[in-house]
Amino acid sequence: MDRQLFQLLLRNGPVVTEDTITERLHLTPGEIDACLVRLNNRLNAFALRINSVIFGQDSCLGIINVKDDSASKLGTPYTPTEISYFKQILKILLLDGEDSLVDLEAEIGRQSSVNPEKLVRQLVKDKWLAEENKMIAFGQRSFLELETNLIAISEQIGGLANICCLCSALHIGCSGSDKGVKCAHCAAKMHKRCQEDYSKRFHLCPQCRRPAEWEPIIGRRRRLELEAERLKSEGLPIPADGEFSLLNLSHPLKRRRTRAERKAAMRFEGDNDSDDLYENPAERRRRVVPKVKQEDPL
């Protein structure tokens, strides 16, 4: 049984759904879990592990490498420049959940040694990324192999990667098919399907124990759209492109604004209390409290 499962993972990899295993090998979820324990005990000697994650509505399994050394890096078909570009894509997706190829290229910038469209197509083919309705999101393989890295990066940049408080699996709130919800009263976050199963039996938040009020998890781009809608509904002017854009939100990929852009922001914002939304607070402090030139005592 263990050998059949291992051969199935090798033959149908890099990702196999639990439904496929049940259909091919006629194993119950309990039998699959028992096989994984025995196989992982044997694979430890080779720095390999069979990992299991929830992706969308499916439970996925795959064989992953748990050792990060120079020998392991020789097995990748991607160049160092392509890997660096992929890391920047991951950061953007951790903030937005999903993006179009055009938006990704516009935010990262074109590099002479990388063809973004060709690279993204290959990453989708290898299941590192997924594409649905012309939107790029995380793929099954990223969930399987990069869970620890995604959570660490997300903590640094305030991203969407979280551990579901019900099933303890990775989820990225609004990335492709991986929809998530959060409690309106506390920091509890979970998969949408986990919340639906939980709500059939309980009506309190599992973390704060208050009456459950669930909100969808939204990314940076959607938050920006909602803010624009709010300004429009209140009859307030929406800043021109460049002053109210994704590039000017606070995140690690933020570019430094030019002198002309900062002057335009000052003319638009005036002394409005809400100008921190468009301008770096440090820049605002420098503008509000200008330095006084000291006179020469001589």
From TrEMBL:
It catalyses: S-ubiquitinyl-[E2 ubiquitin-conjugating enzyme]-L-cysteine + [acceptor protein]-L-lysine = [E2 ubiquitin-conjugating enzyme]-L-cysteine + N(6)-ubiquitinyl-[acceptor protein]-L-lysine. It is an enzyme of class 2 (transferase). The keyword Aminoacyl-tRNA synthetase does not apply. Keywords: Acyltransferase, DNA damage, DNA recombination, DNA repair, Metal-binding, Nucleus, Transferase, Ubl conjugation pathway, Zinc, Zinc-finger. Its EC number is 2.3.2.27. The keyword Protein biosynthesis does not apply. Residues 164-205 form the Phorbol-ester/DAG-type domain. GO terms for molecular function: ubiquitin protein ligase activity. Residues 264-298 are annotated as: Disordered. InterPro entries: Nse1, PKC_DAG/PE, WH-like_DNA-bd_sf. Signal peptide: none annotated. Pfam families: SMC_Nse1. It is found in: Nucleus. Component of the Smc5-Smc6 complex. Belongs to the NSE1 family. This is Non-structural maintenance of chromosomes element 1 homolog.
